[in-house]
Amino acid sequence: MSLELFERHREKLDQACEASHSRGYWSGYKEMPSPRVYGETAQDDGIKAFQSHLGKTFEIDQPTSGGTLGVEEGPFGVELNVQYPAPDVEAMMAAAKAAMPAWRKIGRQGRAGVCMEILERLNAKSFELAFSVMHTTGQAFMMAFQAGGAHAQDRGLEAVAYGYEEQMRHPKTAAWVKAQGKNDPLEMTKKYTAVGRGVSLMVGCATFPTWNGYPGLFASLITGNAVIVKPHPRAVLPLAITVRVVREVLVEAGLDPNLVCLAVDTLEAPITKEFATHADTKIVDFTGSSEFGNWLEDNCKQAQVYTEKAGVNAIIIDDFDDVKGISRNLSFTFSLYSGQMCTTPQNVFIPRDGIDVNGENMSFDDVAKAIATGVEKFLSVPERAVEVLGSIQNKGILDRIEEAKKLGDVVLDTTQIDHPMFKGIQCHTPVIVKIDGADIEKYSEELFGPIVFVIATDSTQDSIEKMKTTICENGAITLGLYSKNEEMIEAVEEAALEAGVNLSINLTGGVFVNQSAAFSDFHATGANPAANAALTDGNFVSGRFRVMQSRR
Amino acid sequence: MSLELFERHREKLDQACEASHSRGYWSGYKEMPSPRVYGETAQDDGIKAFQSHLGKTFEIDQPTSGGTLGVEEGPFGVELNVQYPAPDVEAMMAAAKAAMPAWRKIGRQGRAGVCMEILERLNAKSFELAFSVMHTTGQAFMMAFQAGGAHAQDRGLEAVAYGYEEQMRHPKTAAWVKAQGKNDPLEMTKKYTAVGRGVSLMVGCATFPTWNGYPGLFASLITGNAVIVKPHPRAVLPLAITVRVVREVLVEAGLDPNLVCLAVDTLEAPITKEFATHADTKIVDFTGSSEFGNWLEDNCKQAQVYTEKAGVNAIIIDDFDDVKGISRNLSFTFSLYSGQMCTTPQNVFIPRDGIDVNGENMSFDDVAKAIATGVEKFLSVPERAVEVLGSIQNKGILDRIEEAKKLGDVVLDTTQIDHPMFKGIQCHTPVIVKIDGADIEKYSEELFGPIVFVIATDSTQDSIEKMKTTICENGAITLGLYSKNEEMIEAVEEAALEAGVNLSINLTGGVFVNQSAAFSDFHATGANPAANAALTDGNFVSGRFRVMQSRR
To answer: Measured between CB atoms, which of B20, B188, B193 is closest to A511?
Structure first.
């Protein structure tokens, strides 16, 4: 059965492997929520499927302590009231572990077939998942559909491709024949088996439960591990639907569904530490705060831990002629999902003496104003603005905006926009605050949310130094540069290599520094404190299994 | 220059990559110390080169505190009295780090060329290295030549091949073009750069300084890192010669020789911890005691740590017809280098009721006796015996033999053989001690040296359980099985996968459980406490560099 699935999906898997090598544009799933792609009734079916979960207990037949729990609040005001079975940690760990030998035995191609089928089924549920992502994270619909659906599925497929290829580097068997001069040669038959490390824990985040979760989930599955999916208490539903799909496919393939279990907890009684430090947990994937990510790295000695944490993403603005292009591009960048992305820039470094624009000096304040005006104009039509901004994920972010305003001169204040569709919901535009480059303590840590600092530096060279200092200390996932000087571009490229951060240069069109495309862009590098791994490369998959050898 | 080297060695590198995939027999360097291969004068030249080091200060122009030190004792009685410059830790770390950007800039092919040239030069010095290995470790000449020379070079080449291929998985540049319906497509040019993690520390061991050291050294070099080579104080010379060769090639290629430095210390004033916990040390490779290996894993938070530690290798003897074959094979296995290998079996599990041999029961004692007699006969001719046994590396091992004898009935006592060539040197044959399987605390930890326990179990099934318990708890690198029952073979294969240990089945000929061949056998698995990594696979190299991206 699993090998039939492999044959059915082989072509797409081969394409995915090839795309991960060539790194041009490729996608396994369609990102447009179009009826022509997903079917005439897909959107309505998706809404109904989403609504069918509301106010109910989510059915999933797995080891449970008996009770139910669920604390999701709808950032758009839609009350979820979904209850999930509370996990029994020991029973769930034991059941997941017990499901592993059969998963190992179907082999790497069998596992690939099952993983590909799961992704295909998830893709078919893209609308249901999109509404679930939207009403747990606060993303606007289009973003929830793309980042939470097709793009997340692409990231999952990418992990399957890397994990599959990593296991295919060695044959299942080999004949070893060593000549011995006039004597008979020495001959051995050797067998190589990929064996998963153990139970893998995937800890989801509140803002991108699927996009940040699928890489670890699928990387662990393809390499032979069981997975406990532990969603953020505020964004459970998208991962609950995901786990149910996984389990359905496992059952159809004649496998034990407890290979993948859903472990839900609450903000008041978290269970992540219990799972993460369990002796049988051998892998942990985490996206979230630096504090907890560092705790996991320090305390899960028995496991391989992959973390994506906070960072201070930066933009360096040097001499550049197309300031309108900067403004247009950054307006969208800062506004998208109200800056609640791990890739949104926070620190914009601009020389205090201004920059050269078409041979004329443009002052610091004028550059800052151009950006502020761009953001203001871009968000001037409420109906359009809310479809970019989405909603604020939790109230802590609103408090943070107020804190940020106290740090310097407010260049652009945040405004509230009443959501035309969801009554009582207010969307929040980005705040832009001017800070002096010398006050590094004000901007050297991440203030997650729609908060932008324009920072006055002594020169672009000083901007580079301050970028390096802050990123080496507190990490970053993205760095942007605007410059017309090739020498300066080279200097920033070199500095980016030293700071261990991916660089985007002179983006003025339809590509944004906070977006990264599976198969072409590496998300994070693992080379600065913002993350200890990249999505997805060989290192993200190769530690999830070991090769055992038998020779005779 | 480095690209010229790449072209010169490209064919061999391609062959090595291919061999790592097909995993049949392949070797990059000749293992026989034959004049036809290495030249008529190679042996004499090697002796002279070795002797030229004795009683002198080893010349190497690198950051030093000014003093010299050196405590090597010749296990064969040849006094070394070599002094080495004492390192200045901070200055050495700074110099190594400063050498990295140029090493990155010559690119993956440039680094491959330089690494291949280094290996070629080391190969040309195989006799000099062999005598250095012999007179520091106590290995007999043939083993020192093979394991310390060609086989170590093969392990280094294997690491170069894996590291090179891992970096070649992604292109240097890619064009990303995303169609936008009727609008112009989005286009980006992307650049990918492999960047080493930082300074790498290679901590050598006293028994196999080159074989265990080269994988980490070359894996770190090929992936763009600087390397501090910290030999075991008792086995410095082979690595000192190695580092000098590396530095010569670097200088010839126009690179900074401080990319690789030699850091010598003494048993009384060790410096490993200082280097290992230095903020700029990002990789540590270690072979040695579990105690120190675990310390490194726990305390080098800033680094990726690869360890090979102690383990309790095992043999399971089930029903088998060719007991002479068992005896012949294990005699060599137990005797080679007086059991001072991380792959030598310690625990031989045999059912207390005996085994079936050609339809007749052979008692536990008779099986044990057959093995003991085999060892005795094999070592009965002193001239031949000493060429297998070599010398005891340090006095602690002799004390351990005496301890082991107190644990049970001595089936075969150790004997001392006067070395015919080296006056006053005594070689020691293996001791075989009978222990009851129930006394697991007696055999569950490693007693490094020529010590074998024959352990009486309730059945082969019980042997499997006790093997699993001891290996899951204390690790192992090798497991051997003798059985004529296919079902039992399958059961042990399954148990080996669970214990995370590589298995050798029914070895009665010229292949031995304690030998592992580069490009075909994985040395250790990383899946039990004996090691957290395997030599060499994708996981051994992929964490040593990160890919940084620049797009515009």
So the answer is: B188
Residues forming beta bridges with residue A452, ordered by sequence position: A432
Show residues of chain A in contact with B524, CB under 8 Å: none
The residue among A497, A506, A535 with the most chain B CBs within 10 A of its CB, best to mutate, is: A497
> A20 lies in a domain?
no
CATH code for the domain in which residue B353 is found: 3.40.309.10
Tell me the mean pLDDT in the region A104-113.
97
Is B524 inside a domain boundary?
A: no
Tokens 């569904």: give the residue. Answer: A257
* The pLDDT of residue B387: 96
The pLDDT tens digits of the residues spanning A7-60 come to 999 999 999 999 999 999 999 999 999 999 999 999 999 999 999 999 999 999
Alpha-carbon span A454 to A315, nearest angstrom: 9
Q: Is A470 an 8 Å CB contact of chain B?
A: no
Task: Judge whether B434 lies within some domain.
Answer: yes
Give A191's contacts in chain B (Cβ within 8 Å): 493
Show the domain range for A468: 314-505
Average pLDDT of the segment spanning B268-281:
97
Local confidence band at B1 (pLDDT 50, 70, 90 cut-offs): confident
User: What pLDDT, on a 0 to 100 scale, did the predictor assign at position A112?
Assistant: 98
The amino acid that residue B248 corresponds to is E
Q: What is the ipTM of this complex?
A: 0.95
Structure confidence at residue A1 (pLDDT): 81
Is the CB of residue B220 less than 8 Å from the CB of residue B285? Answer: yes
B175 to chain A: which residues are within 8 Å by CB? Answer: 24
B320 shares a domain with B299: no
Long-range CB contacts for residues B14-20, cutoff 8 Å, separation at least 24: B16/B157, B16/B158, B16/B160, B16/B161, B16/B519, B17/B161, B17/B164, B17/B165, B19/B161, B19/B519, B19/B520, B20/A169, B20/B158, B20/B161, B20/B162, B20/B165, B20/B519, B20/B536
- CATH code, A296: 3.40.605.10
A301 plus A358 within the same structural domain: no
Interface touch A502/B180, C-beta < 8 Å: no
- Contact between A548 and B171 using a beta-carbon 8 Å cutoff: no
What is the least distance, in Å, from the CA of B496 to any CA of chain A? 8
Residues 179-238 of A with CB under 8 A from B: 180, 186, 188, 190-193, 195, 197
- CA A426 to chain B, closest CA, distance in angstroms equals 32
Say what the pLDDT of residue A46 is: 97
